[in-house]
Specification:
122 residues; elongated
Length: 122
């Protein structure tokens, strides 16, 4: 280490302790932001499905095979608000479990959409 260079003890502890760093609320938020990001990607892909009913159909039974863009907008607005509300209402460790399940579900939807040829677009 160069002379005069000081290390940040919190940063060193984080590097050594991995995700067990104390007072790191942002670490616990990572699965939440992953789920939210995947939801945004799924939203864009589902809008593509709604915009091209001759080429694609929707698998979500709540939206129907050929949803309108308006119904896709409403669906994602309501379900995302519900997921965010549920996430903040749950205590730990259930909050993280919820976020990982949400992220996994959205991730599976995004991968399925890519498999049928729908690109990632927002």
């Amino acid at each position: 280490m160069p002379a005069g260079h000081q290390t940040d003890p919190d940063r060193s502890a984080w590097i050594q302790g991995g995700l067990r760093r104390k007072n790191a609320d942002w670490v616990a938020m990572d699965p939440f932001f992953l789920a939210l990001g995947l939801t945004l990607v799924d939203y864009g892909q589902t809008r593509t499905v709604a915009s091209a009913p001759a080429y694609y159909h929707e698998y979500n039974p709540l939206l129907g095979k050929h949803p309108s863009v308006g119904s896709v907008n409403k669906y994602f607005m309501l379900t995302t608000a519900g997921q965010v509300g549920l996430h903040y209402a749950l205590p730990q460790p259930y909050r993280d479990v919820h976020a990982w399940i949400w992220a996994g579900t959205e991730g599976a939807c995004v991968v399925q959409n890519i498999r049928v040829g729908i690109r990632i677009s927002l």
